[in-house]
Amino acid sequence: MKHAAEAGGWEIAGAIAMVVWMVVMWAGVAVLAVGLRKPLRPWVFRTGLAVIGLGVLAQLGHFQEHVLQVGYWVGHPNSPSWMTPWGTGLANGFGQVDHTKPSLGMEILHLVGNFHFLAGLAGVALVTHHAVQSRARHWGRMGVVMQGIHGLEHIALTVSVALGAKAIGLSTFFGQLDPGPGLWTYRVWWHFVANVIGTTIFAIALWQLWRERATIAAPYRDRARTVAAKAEPAEPIEGALPALP
Fold it and tell me: DSSP 3-state helix, strand, coil percentages of the chain (rounded to 5)?
């Protein structure tokens, strides 16, 4: 029986850090969703921007992994799928959850990476909630749908491997492809194309968010000013009669 590769302390720490990163991002999404149901405050807008920023950083790392995988495939089309040394190290770190399933760590790594990406897109969709006509909102919501489907794909792949079966998903023809160049090629390109589409949508959403930043930020500033104005005591009118006892 094949076993997962051993992992060093830094590889395990890196895997844990990725999970913490994901939890922090989704906690931010939850705070943002709740904050939008109450009188708007500037900190709600800043929370959304923080979630989006973490999503950008995560997707830069995630996307470069797929670009390099395709680059390797171009030179070695009949070889097994390749991962960068840092990607392999993180996969080994995740793989410590079950040594009897060699590919489980890789599946968990990509699952976590995709949920980083989805949280960033959710941040765009939520922070533009009150800018109904915003193009950034349009592209952000489109990204959430597209990446949500991609996320379900990775859930299916991870759960099927965790249960001891072949990786089952759209990118493996639901486990019907036997290991070999056909499966490796199809899966590498399937995930590359999915990430190109998702990253392009994210980039357009970010561009529109920048262009429309004044309109999108206005409700958070205006509502805060209104609340502050109501909280200030009214100044007495000069010459007014005192209230009767």
Answer: 75, 0, 25
Structure tokens given for 72: 């390797």
User: How far is residue 65's CA from residue 70's CA, in Å, rounded to a whole number?
Assistant: 9
Burial of 77 (0-12, 13-18, 19+ CB in 10 A): exposed
Indicate the burial class of 89 (C-beta count within 10 angstroms; 0-12, 13-18, 19 or more): buried
Q: Is 230 exposed, middle or buried (0-12, 13-18, 19+ CB in 10 A)?
A: exposed
CA pseudo-torsion sign 224, 36, 27, 136:
negative
Work out the burial of residue 164: count CB atoms within 10 Å of its CB; fewer than 13 is exposed, 13-18 middle, 19 or more buried: exposed
Averaged pLDDT, 216-234: 65
Spell 138-158 as b/e; 16+ CB within 10 A means b.
bbbbbbbebbeebbebbebbb
Q: Which of 183, 233, 169 is nearest to 78 (CA)?
A: 183
171-176's contacts with Cβ under 8 Å and 24+ in sequence apart are none
Is the pLDDT confidence value at 150 over 80?
yes
Asked whether 103 and 168 are in contact (CB, 8 A), the reply is no
Q: Which amino acid is at 137?
A: R
* Domain boundaries along the sequence of the chain: 9-218
Q: How many residues does the chain have?
A: 245
> What confidence tens digit (pLDDT) does each residue in 63-107 have?
999 999 999 999 999 999 999 999 999 999 999 999 899 999 999
For residue 120, the model assigns a pLDDT of: 98
